[in-house]
Amino acid sequence: MATNSKIEWTTHTFNPWIGCTEVSPGCAHCYARDMMERRYHRVQWGMGQPRSRTTADYWKQPARWQRQAQANGQRERVFCASLADWLDDEVPIDWLADLLTLVAATPHLDWLLLTKRIEHWSDRLQSVSRLTHDGAAIASTWLEGNAPVNVWLGTTVEGQQQAHDRIPMLLEIPTTLRFLSCEPLLEAINILQYLPTVTDAKGTCGLEPNRLHWIICGGESGKEARTFDLQWARSLREQCQAAGMAFFFKQTGAYAIDSSQLHPVQRSLQDPKGGNITALPEALQVREMPLPLLQSAPVGHSRNQKYVPLLIKEVL
Ligand code: SF4
């Protein structure tokens, strides 16, 4: 499958705009700010600074991916806003309306909408719903409980506090599939209370309402990377296994330790982010994906059905 993203768990990356404000400890060494503000001087980061919309030409890319996915008969994933936050409330509201319209117009793409501002979901969509814009109907329908079927909704959880603050809000929002990005993970976290229960012996879990389905885990990269302990990842993986849900280990980051071994994890100069997971202990060589809903739905089933079997697909 053609891909334009270096991120292992997505096919494409799309940035509707660039710029943001730090909101929590996971933002401390924001690579997007480092690149777009300090290196390229493209946009100023922070509160009160205007966000920079990407070009009209760039916005046409998802329609091309959509045609390609449709022609290939395959769904493709789009990670939205690696250089911004799609629920940033300093973004002009019509830009968000345009984004929702684009998502609805590309049904062969699964849009991974990840945010550190999950608490803004309702206010932002209500603002869109009041506009005279095609996106208004999409926002209203979602607010009424019918999420766009090609949206996977995620929130970042870098520590226990963010788990308790953000996961309950994520669980309240209607969506096809919910995921967590635990990257950069900054401490051990326990999320068992938010995980689904295993539904059969093969480790199959279901798209039950108000449940999580997928977890991405990784350490921090860059010069100032904070410590990442492989034991935190083992614990998270065990929690996912116990719940029969998908776990994706992305990278160790630049400074990993393994407290079970009492020595730093060796880092290769060719692999500064620690993304070569074949070099890791076997228990962490895990890159599972949830099977896309629309592929897994048996022929004839409604797109809006509330429960569709969700298989775990090994991709490593
Ligand atoms: S939310 Fe994301 S893009 Fe925004 S400052 Fe934090 S890490 Fe950077």
TrEMBL record:
Protein name: Phage Gp37/Gp68 family protein
